Amino acid sequence: MSGKPKLHYFNGRGRMESIRWLLAAAGVEVCLYGSLLFQQVPMVEIDGMKMVQSRAIGNYIAMKYNLYGKDLKERALIDMYVEAVIDLNELLMTHILQPADKREQHFATIVDKATNRYFPVYEKVLKDHGQDFLVGNQFSRADVQLLETLLMAEECKPDILAKFPLLQSFKARISNIPTIKKFLQPGSQRKPPLQEKDLPKVMKIFH
Amino acid sequence: MAGKPKLYYFDGRGKMESIRWLLAAAGVEFEEEFIETKEDLEKLRNDGVLMFQQVPMVEIDGMKMVQTRAILSYIAAKYNLYGKDLKERAWIDMYVEGTTDLMGMIMYLPFQPADTKEKNLALIIERATTRYFPVYEKALKDHGHDYLVGNKLSWADIHLLEAILMAEECKPDILSAFPLLQAFKGRTSNIPTIKKFLQPGSQRKPPTDEKFVAVVRKIFNI
């Protein structure tokens, strides 16, 4: 009954990627299944449950592996930071789904929101407390999800962190955590960005 | 320092309504400050009280909390509506995410272009009756308890009731194939704090109307 968590999804990032990051960061080995048997994906078989809904799954993993702060208030902060990152991720992920004539404007929106709404908040958080991690001076889910988003944003625009020195050093620091470093190496379960050529296949699965 | 939570939002349901429900069900009195114009929103932004320049925002326990789910999770945990352990929490989270998806569809309906409304309404009804309600009906059937998780009132129950009532506003007989959900609705509506919230004069907001749509469109230039 217990055993490695099993991930059900298609072979791409989508809503499962944040979960892969969290499991990897916590050093949890997973079993790949990769098929679409059920009406709802992502689905993760873990601890005798077939869990759906990416937020529910993320919450469970974060709690189980002590990546969710030490008390209710730290959890509240982590939740706020993670929810905002999810919003930005959504923008980044939907970029490739934009029709060609909307792409440029969508790109401008991504850059605007990232550099004016979201990144300044995290830069300030790090500046204000001067610690290595976002919340409670301890590695948490907020750090994992922020790193994931920073890297995705850089895939969109490589110099997007130019004005955010603390986010740059945060990125380097968190990338060096052994479990994360391993996940960032070739051959890990991290998925590459969705390519245009794969779009028709993905659209077919979800529509 | 302790005082009533204060909610900052528009005078309408939107993303704040689930927070009003949860506080009310927990028996927590709260205050509200309504954003009526673009200038109201700009003032909050310029005062630096909106972490990501967005509402909902709730002042609670010395924090200015933003992000709807973060706020709801905090309230649920604080008032013991989040299950007794990690696994119960997982179930509550899964159920709540389902009702969030459904209510999200209903929430955006008044903002859709007129020519797509009929199609979107049909999709809502289809999703409600084939994807979401069957899950909750089955959960209640399988364990035979009054509540969705752990034989005890939780956030999942409150959220489901809210979703059921919103869905019924879309189609009054939408629960016709779901006898256990009908009973659940009757039972949960009778919980004293919830019964009070369902009465006229409470802080529950009416269904989204043209006036609210106009206010939001004006504030956000959409």
TrEMBL record, chain A:
InterPro entries: Glutathione-S-Trfase_C-like (IPR010987), Glutathione-S-Trfase_C_sf (IPR036282), Glutathione_S-Trfase (IPR040079), Glutathione_S-Trfase_N (IPR004045), GST_alpha (IPR003080), GST_C (IPR004046), GST_superfamily (IPR050213), Thioredoxin-like_sf (IPR036249). This is glutathione transferase. Residues 3-69 form the GST N-terminal domain. It is an enzyme of class 2 (transferase). The chain crosses the membrane at residues 21-38. Its EC number is 2.5.1.18. Keywords: Membrane, Transferase, Transmembrane, Transmembrane helix. PANTHER family: GLUTATHIONE S-TRANSFERASE, GLUTATHIONE S-TRANSFERASE A1. One of its GO terms (molecular function) is glutathione transferase activity. Residues 71-194 form the GST C-terminal domain. The keyword Transferase applies. Pfam families: GST_C_3 (PF14497), GST_N (PF02798). Belongs to the GST superfamily. Alpha family.
Automatic annotation (TrEMBL), chain B:
Residues 85-208 form the GST C-terminal domain. The keyword Transferase applies. One of its GO terms (biological process) is xenobiotic metabolic process. Its EC number is 2.5.1.18. SUPFAM superfamilies: GST C-terminal domain-like (SSF47616), Thioredoxin-like (SSF52833). Keywords: Transferase. Residues 3-83 form the GST N-terminal domain. CDD domains: GST_C_Alpha, GST_N_Alpha. It catalyses: RX + glutathione = an S-substituted glutathione + a halide anion + H(+). One of its GO terms (molecular function) is glutathione transferase activity. It comes from the Eukaryota. Belongs to the GST superfamily. Alpha family. This is Glutathione S-transferase. It comes from Bubo bubo.
